User: What shape does this take?
Amino acid sequence: MIKVRYTFSKVHGKLNSNSSEGELPTIHLSKGFLQQHQIHSDVIMIKFGNWVHEFKVVQTHSLPDNEIGFVRNNESLLIPENISFDIIVKNNVIHIGPFIAFIVKKTWAQLSVKKLEHYRKLYYLYQNNPGFVLICSSDKIDTINQTVTGYYFTQGKWVKGVFPYPDSIFKKTRMPFEKELELRKATGDKLFNTSFLSKLEFWQACSKEVEVAKYLPETKTFRTLEDLDDMLTRFQTVYLKPAKGMQGNGIFVIQDEPDGIYLINNKKDKMKFTSLNELMNALEKMLPKQVYILQQGVPTIYKNKKFDFRLYLQKNYAKKWICQGSVGRVAQEGSIITNLKQVAHIANGEKAIQIIYKVDESKAKRIMNETIEVCKEVCKVIDQELGHFGDIALDVIIDHHFKPWILEVNTLYGKKSLNITKDEDLKIKLHTTPFEYAAALAGF
Assistant: This one.
């Protein structure tokens, strides 16, 4: 690891300017640094994020081997001091980094000190991880000058700075498509978690892949009575969901029973209809003007309670999808959803399998491992078809034949379930691994 230092040199009692007009700026390096990295040229390139510049090498005895010295009055140089960086020296280029932009909010006004502290502590930033993380908002990305304005933490305080485009980007908020496309092109597609996927987009992409499609419940856009009739005829129980819904809002279950058709909402209210026409009339008045989908109901009942699983998948430093952990969620009796508002029990995924299916630890582990492999294949498909991802959660049902059914993908997911299970190790992994992946994308 190295640090950057800015210095002045004196000639005849005056500050020596960085260079005369037309001359290269200088970089000061110790003899040990030059020997260690086998630098023999008098001229070398410095790379920081998307910024690359040529420098004249000056050997110095005043800097230790783990520091690089620049002259302060080079106004175009924006590499911060007092940050521990890694470096890669290759083909006469010193790449200083990794420089990672962490886009957390849409607007600059949302980046209060309280919010910055929240992200610093939650993601364990600026502790042992070498490199430079800039916390920023999407509105402070300047696509004309190719700069990013943000905050970084150093010597116990937050510092505002304007920097060139970074090496890689971890995105945790929505941003204008044109701006995102510009960043992806400028960084060589090193921006991940590019999209927030609707249930319909997820289904349409994954259903095209035969080996993945068999693990997806049948899904179709809800437009007409015929759509609903077709799904109920085939599955008897159908979920009606907003294509872009979140946290269980707006979800209904429709059940075709011998004595009538039942509609159950996420508040456990149950309404009976004598015909599909009657139900359709009610839905037309009830549903907001947005796209809804119909999804095959997969039976999952444990002591009269529905259950599902959430698996957390991320790409690691090797750029491979791994499952970091899982939770099993059992809903309250009568509830059609398993989010925290209506959950009765939450446990580690494998433990939940043991309890629900009354299998031993070895069998539960085998079931979960098979589910994980299916989820990894799903992740590969959404990477190929829908964008660049590295941090997602998949909601899954495991039926009584131990077959996994992938319900949806969450690219902006909460971790409150882990507060209940008190799985601190999993929380740490989920908050630190994306930055390992970002560093790997940057080449470090």
Remarks:
- Residues 361-386 form the longest helix (26 residues).
- The chain has four domains: 3-96, 99-192, 198-216+300-444, 218-297.
- Residues 10-19 have pLDDT under 50 and may be disordered.
- The domain at 198-216+300-444 is CATH 3.30.470.20 (D-amino Acid Aminotransferase; Chain A, domain 1).
